[in-house]
Amino acid sequence: MTRTWITGYRNYEIGVFNNNDIKLKVIKRALKNEITNLIENGCDWLITGGQLGTEQWVIEIVHELKKEYPDQFQLAVIVPFRNFGKNWNETNYGRYQQLISSADFFASTSQRDYESPQQLKNYQYFMLTHTDKALFLYDTENEGKPIFDYKAALKYQNQNNYPIQLIEMDDLQDVAAEMAEENKSNHDI
Fold first, then answer.
1. DSSP characters for 94-127?
2. Tens of pLDDT along 103-131?
């Protein structure tokens, strides 16, 4: 069995505030390309959290990919504490509830509401020890909240065989150029 932890930037860290943003189309294409590659190479479980941004986009992408690959993988959404997202506005929390309902498995690593940053460290440890590799939408030149997961993964990698794949800003630029070329080709027809 192969299990991959997928996480990355929150939407506000990369300036994506609506679903029509061209940046989001590029990000989703890059994520979909890498997730498809994981599935086609035998990944059985895609595991993510429920954070706004990358993690929720992953859930959306995986939901779409289930149509193409109906029995080839499963999605687990694991969050760091009970009542995760409860303090978000009604729209964000409702969307989160809808997204997690599409997961094959849902759990929280702590059965208590948020109490301390230790719950987040315990969550990282759980994700690292229950996956075989990681895919992060993260660029070391553009720090954000994913730095904590990335540093924990690097530390874990020092003691374990744990591949870490990054989707960086250059990768997003390549996908944007590819999409622009496709768009140009479609207009030329």
1. HHHHHHHTT-SEEEES-SS----HHHHHHHHHHH
2. 999 999 999 999 999 999 999 999 999 99
